[in-house]
Amino acid sequence: MGVELKVNLGQRSYPIFIVSSQLPHLGRYLIPLSLASRVFVITDEVVGRLYGEQVTRALRDAGFEVLYQELPDGEEYKSLESAGQLYTRALEGGVERRSAMIALGGGVIGDLAGFVAATYMRGVPLVQVPTTLLAQVDSSVGGKVAVNHPLGKNMIGCFYQPRLVFADVATLKTLPLREIRAGLAEVIKYGVIRDKDFFEFLEENLEKILRLDQDVLIEVVKRSCAIKAGIVEKDETEQELRAILNFGHTIGHALEVLTKYRVYRHGEAVAAGMVAAAAIAEEKGLCGPDLTMRLAGILEHAGLPVRIPFKAEEIIEVLPRDKKAQGGWPRFVLPVALGRVVIDADVGRDVIRSALERCRAERGELS
């Protein structure tokens, strides 16, 4: 059971394998990559307990020597300090230029291990093995790798494409429901920015997704990755089009910064940010209230937050720190219809303030 996609980037092209219950065979997929015999598996303590031994065995069965490192779980560990620990482990463990770094885990591990792979010896092969829905549909594909800074999320990073992405939807069965819901925010995002039919598919199949129906999950991951791959192929380094993938992220990242990355899952923050972006689009006359209500409806049905537990001024204060800001102010991705968005660099504070006040919730409320 599974499908294969390809991200077409010339010499940096790579396959995405979307499968179910194939993790014990991971090593076979790496053999064609002509890697060194030693590989470096990077994961966190939670994923390591679930899949570390299975992945290590799969790689050894395919003839690889495995260097293995677990890190504590949490967004706060996506840092330069953690990267430094991994550099040391790689150097002491004999990781060389053709040794693959294998990111086994969610978005935090994928971003961190990817950043280390991109910068260790000026770049070694990277293999993404995402184990969360959010990572499978978003962060593992497209080559954005980074660590956080206390003043902003993903402020230190680069574009570095993996050699292969291996997404096994069976790993989602061990996720807490909250993580599935958080991943759904990024899935829903794709429908809003690019594909109305996909949005409607999600409305019709939401319960099956939450029940982790494997066939439906493969379809969801496939269509999400296909949308993202199509965008990345046209704009790998986010000069223009790729910016639409940031729908909901401008306000979402502000929420994460204000809560020091300790309250929201990334997808939860993005969900609230998408509703805020739709409210901003309404304020500017770009869309009607029906779009905002429909978006908020599917997000609430998915169990995601749609309100902002901060005053508008608190959000506005941190917006200039957004890494995509130009001239000290962020560009917003705003919906005009399901499947279509625009990038707007002229969103004033008064418009944001008015929209955010409509999205207000009591402090600490997550839905």
Order of helices and strands: EEHEHEHEHEHEEEHHHHHHHEEH
**Topology, number of strands:** 11
How many whole angstroms does the radius of gyration measure?
20 Å
Q: Return the structural class.
A: alpha/beta
Cα separation of the termini = 36 Å
Label this structure with key terms:
7-stranded mixed sheet; 11 strands; 367 residues; alpha/beta; two-stranded antiparallel sheet; Dehydroquinate synthase-like, alpha domain; Rossmann fold; 2 domains; 46% helix
Written description of the protein model:
With 367 residues, the chain is of the alpha/beta class. It has two domains: 2-174, Rossmann fold, CATH 3.40.50.1970; 184-358, Dehydroquinate synthase-like, alpha domain. The protein is 46% helix and 18% strand. The chain contains 13 helices and eleven strands. It has helices at residues 26-30, 45-61, 80-92, 107-119, 133-139, 177-194, 196-210, 214-234, 249-258, 266-283, 289-301, 312-318, 349-358, and strands spanning 2-7, 14-19, 38-44, 65-71, 101-105, 126-130, 144-149, 152-159, 164-168, 332-337, 340-344. It has a seven-stranded mixed β-sheet, sandwiched between helices. It has a two-stranded antiparallel ribbon with strand order 7-8. A two-stranded antiparallel ribbon has the order 10-11. A hairpin with a 2-residue loop joins strand 10 and strand 11 (340-344). Helix 3 packs across helix 4, helix 9 packs across helix 12 (312-318) and helix 10 (266-283) packs across helix 13 (349-358). The chain starts with a strand and ends in a 9-residue tail after the last helix. The relative contact order is 0.11.
